Amino acid sequence: MLLRLVFRNVLRHKLRTALTLCGICVAILSFGLLRTVISAWYAGVEASSANRLITRNAISLIFPLPLSYLERIRGVEGVKTVSYGNWFGGIYIEEKNFFANFAVEPRTYLELYSEYLLPEDQKQAFLRDRRACIVGRKLAKRFDWTVGDLITLRGTIFPGNWEFVLRGIYSGRDHRVDESQFFFHWDYLNETLKKTEPLRADQVGIYILNVANPEHAAETGARVDRVFKNSYAETLTETEKSFQLGFVALTEAILLVIQLVSFVVIVIIMAVAANSMSMSVRERLGEYAVFKTLGFGGAYLGMLILGESLLMAVVGGTGGVLLTFPAARVFLNYLGDYFPIFLVTRQTVIFQGLAALAVGVAAAALPTWRAVRVPIIQALGRIG
Amino acid sequence: MEEKGAIVELRNLCKSYRRGGQILPVLRDITLDIREGDFMALMGPSGSGKSTLLNLIAGLDQPDSGVIHVAGVDITTLSEGELAEWRALNVGFIFQFYNLIPVLTAFENVELPLILTDLSKRERREHAATALKLVKLEDRMDHYPGQLSGGQQQRVAIARAMVTDPTILVADEPTGDLDRTSAEEVLTLMERLSREAGKTIIMVTHDPRAARKARSMRYLEKGVLASAPEISFSQCA
Q1: What share of chain A is helix, strand, coil (3-state, %, to 5)?
Q2: Rounded to two decimals, what is the model's pTM?
Q3: Is the separation of the CB atoms in A189 and A103 below 8 Å?
Q4: Is A54 inside any structural domain?
Q5: What is the CATH architecture of B37-60+79-218?
Q6: Is residue A48 part of a domain?
Q7: Is B24 on the interface with A (CB under 8 A)?
Q8: How far apart are CA B44 and CA A9, in angstroms?
Q9: Secondary element (H or E) of residue A21
């Protein structure tokens, strides 16, 4: 009987219920999308490997390190493999076509980043050709590139037009791998610089270290930094995760605002749902008085009102959660350049569910208190 | 008919309400016995305290002073929760505006008070069906209140009031919202319940025709009972 009453009460004011459900649905959807934006921000951090360390200039990332450090880092105890690379910052045709592009030492880089899956023939073709490049599956799809295409990037940090031959298209081992990057031979960059800007040659942006035992990563990093202590280019070695978090920290204020907005959305819908429930309860105070007259206690009324509120929250919330997935795909189509990984995570869905339940409980709290507290004769209007 | 003892005993009952800082006495030192099986009409002008007295007898409100015994239980000493349980078992309510739950069918409305009993689902359904049959609405059990006439709704309300076989039935202006024919049907039904089922019914009414159907009548004026042999007057403390 309780469930029957809850269901029928929900359907009493169809327009009001529809509007409230719509509001909850949109709020949970917005909440989910904003949480997904936050997750996307941390995608690089999530994809980090515990086995990898990043060594950069201790002063700032914008200052390079000499290539001569390579062999000395290799010799540090605990270091298994070392690769290196530079942020290239090239532009394809025009600025709006932004994507991440790096000059890397290809053999060691692909060894370190085994999550980039590249067919063997394409890998060999990439390694053989100094002007070769490889791109992620999403990036190739975005610009309709196929293997063999000639791609020209306009350098910003390293001026000039740089021509590459696409030799391979990689795909990620799992959904966390960024498939929108562009890699080419560091040697191609370095040899060109030797001719055009010799002072900038033989300089490396970062070294990427593979450690034998991730449990000793901090120790190994400290050992590397000790090697270059008091040199003209001291190093700072940190885990790949810390390195990525450093980038996220640069935009902390924006993240904070997004988080705040996501919670504000929930608070607003709580107020809207509470108002809707209050209206319903106010209209039915006489009925609740009849329940009390017949001997039903406050607990039963509480369940009746909470049940109605929760039912709306669950239906609206489920709609919101289900719509988050197609909405995220649409979002990705438009903003995929900025958020290469834009996936609705299980954690986001759980947060959405909890937010919907919180809306249901909060919306029912005050009306329940009112319905339970109001004296029967006052609600029935039977004084006299 | 065999004379029975008092099932409702009111002693020196006083009740007042506070309105805008003023205390308005509504009932003054009411002492009254209602015999088991009686069908009593409670009359009086508007504001005389009839509904307040009915609320007190039904355990919907508490007096400022005085004692109310119903079937031997002093209900003035019960807590709110105990009073709710007591009402569920001992009182059947018939309201002027029926007060049926609009989203429940006639059958479900009658079944509603039985949820608070220990009856199984099958027993509940049997009791509700019997009660609806008694008020001759077995063919309307799947109708919602909005699909029934006023008289039919009041008959459903009577079925709901008696389905738990309560100690007393209280009715507040049960014919106040009905046309003459429907009112007659409802009053005849209540009279039958009193005569055939031996139910104790206390009915507040303005309508002399309704009062004539009752077995006894009490008159309230300005919060005191008038012109009845059982009534005694004394000053409220």
Answers
A1: 60, 15, 25
A2: 0.76
A3: yes
A4: no
A5: 3-Layer(aba) Sandwich (3.40)
A6: no
A7: no
A8: 38
A9: helix A14-41
Q: What is the chain B residue with the closest CA to A381?
A: B51
More confident residue, B196 or A140: A140
Q: What is the pLDDT of residues B1-25, one digit of tens each?
A: 455 688 899 999 999 988 878 888 8
| Residue A210 near residue A73, CB atoms below 8 Å | no
Least CA distance to B51: which residue of chain A?
A384
Check if A299 contacts B (Cβ < 8 Å).
Answer: no
- The residue in chain A having the minimum alpha-carbon distance to the alpha carbon of residue B59 is A293
* Contact in structure between B190 and B174 (CB atoms under 8 Å): yes
Structure tokens at A234: 């001291």
Give the contacts of B202 (CB within 8 A, at least 6 positions apart): B8, B34, B40, B42, B54, B57, B168, B169, B170, B171
Contact call for residues A343 and A257 (beta carbons, < 8 A): no
> Tell me, what's the ipTM?
0.87
Please check whether residue B49 touches A, CB under 8 A: yes
* Block residue for tokens 């995929």: A336
Same domain, A216 and A132: yes
Q: What is the DSSP letter of A89?
A: -
Segment 321-380 of chain A within 8 Å of chain B by CB = 375-377, 380
Residues A323 and A352 in one domain: yes
